[in-house]
Amino acid sequence: MTDRVSHLARLGLLLALATVIHTAEAFLPITVAWFRFGFANIIGLATLYLFGFKDALLLTLGRIFLGSLLGGLFGSPAFILSLSGGVCAIVAMGLVHRVSGRVFSEVGISMMGAVFHNLGQLAAAYLIIIRNEAILLLLPLLLLAATATGFINGLAARFFIRHFQNTSQTDHPRKT
Amino acid sequence: MGRSRIIATVIYNESQDDASRIKNFLSLMSSQAGGFQEKASVLFSTVHRPSTMHNVISKMKKNNYATPGDWALVGSLLALSAILFFALPGWVGSEGTLVEVRRGEKIFGRYDLDRDRVVEVPGPFGITKVEIKQKRACVTESPCPHKYCLHMGSVDRNGGLVVCVPNEVILQMGKERPDGLDAVSQ
What we know:
The complex is a heterodimer. Chain A is mainly alpha-helical. Helix content of chain A is 77%, strand content 0%. Chain A contains six helices and no strands. In chain A, helix 1 packs antiparallel against helix 2 (40-51), helix 1 packs across helix 3 and helix 2 runs antiparallel to helix 3 (53-71). The radius of gyration of chain A is 17 Å and the shape is globular. Chain B is an alpha+beta fold. The radius of gyration of chain B is 37 Å and the shape is elongated. In chain B, 16% of the residues are buried. The chains are: A mainly alpha, B alpha+beta.
């Protein structure tokens, strides 16, 4: 019972953190329209490692809904892109995490997530928003950006996971 | 005269070889300086203090920040994006069948790409020659001062564009949307 409660509380904290990062990232002064660091994915990846795929998917969906509500973008094309990219990324990360074993560390999984985030976004942009083949020309640039941001986020996620586990052990003596 | 004593601390960054080289040099110096007197004794202590970059790298190695699989993924992604960067422009867009030549605001003519021909378009500077050859369209001669339109090369895919601003000549591949828009975002 206490385990379930603490699990829920932790998940709530992670969701709050992810939402804040998601929203705060929109304020970064980056002029390139299609480029984003995707820092919120750090929390998604950490949740995947700490609590498993279901919770990570739930967190990502919650983060995107709450984040777009906060940013005033709910239901806009930006929201659709965010949703498709986010779901694609978390599903890809979950699959790779389950299948690959120890081939990839958090860094590799994070890069996979970043790449599939961009692929999902591009697919949604093409299918729903702009039916113009020219946007596919962005693909190489998106892949390049995804590799870089995925690497950085992966490292950050690893630190986050370690720190989270350490604090969990010290702060939460299990009494039954 | 008592024994003079030199106390030296050698701080080395990368390898212990550097430290021992400095040690040898110092003891040589001290033996020459104190040659006619008693030999100076040198007390050495060595401290390993890695440089920052070295520190970061050794830390990364020790903590295994990225597995070989990760690095392989980085490499393959970089290679893939490089390949796509050069290959994609050739794949994207369907092959054009029609080129539209505009002179200022007006449509000068629409030409089928299947037939090779040269079209002469008169503009404010003179005559711009547009050539259609082997399903490609380009500007071959222009009276404009900078000749940017010549350097824009030829186009063969829908959406392709060659523009000569001074002479007000525009080549555009493919049909326009029926509503005259490039794309619609809903």
